[in-house]
Amino acid sequence: MDFTSLVPPWLDALLIAPFRWPAEPHAGLWLGAGCLAGLCLLLGELTSSLLFWLQRRRLLAMQDNLLHYHNLSVDALHAGDKTAYLAANKLAHEDFGRNFFAQAAVGMSGLWPLPFALAWMSLRFEGITLYHIPGTDMHASYVFVLLSCYLLLHLIFARCRKHLPFFSYIEGIKRQARERRGTARHF
User: Fold this and answer.
1) How far is residue 6's CA from residue 11's CA, in Å, rounded to a whole number?
2) Residue 182 neighbours by CB distance under 10 Å
3) CA distance 168 to 45
4) Where are the transmembrane segments (predicted)?
């Protein structure tokens, strides 16, 4: 099945509209890619925040356990009990692995719209050379433009998320959990 047949005409018309607004083609490309990147960012951040909210008890409990076992291992190390240190450190490492991959899954869940946006852009802009890289035979294409816009918008969004309604609620949950949890003891 061809990807073109999966894109409804109304969605294609909606996505291509910002690309056609400016009269200058490069400005249209950057504006359209910026709008598309903004849509991808919003959908992705909503997805990852919703996923965190649905799994918050489990994710926060894993972070609590990780800190608990880390602090136990540090206490055992300071007390000179090597057996207790190794046992607690092993549990801390296991919890670190679980926590790391759970947090990575939540974070990566926010990237799901990008492949679809790139696939749609390939239908429209594949084979068009936008910028030549000086001194090489390489060129930048629509992928460079979309990812540049996405990264810039992501940096801006990271600074603004604490002021947006749903995202500030999620950040508040994380902040309260950090305050309740305390800090890790130092070796």
Assistant:
1) 10
2) 11
3) 12
4) 29-54, 100-120, 140-158
Backbone angles phi, psi at 131, to 5 degrees: -140, 135
Q: Please report, as a single letter, which amino acid is at residue 120.
A: W
Residue 137 is predicted with a pLDDT of 85
| CB-based contacts of 31, cutoff 8 Å, min separation 6 | 18, 19, 21, 22
> Burial letters for 69-103: b for 16+ Cβ neighbours within 10 Å, e otherwise?
bbbbbbebbeeeeeeebeebbebbeebeeebeebe
Distance of CA 92 to the CA centre of its chain: 26
C-alpha separations of 123 from 7, 18, 98 in Å? 10, 16, 39
| 51's tokens | 């996923």
* CB-CB contact of 31 with 18 (8 Å): yes
Of the pLDDT bands very low, low, confident and very high (cuts 50, 70, 90), residue 150 is: very high
Helix boundaries (H) for 55-164? 56-79, 82-108, 113-125, 142-160
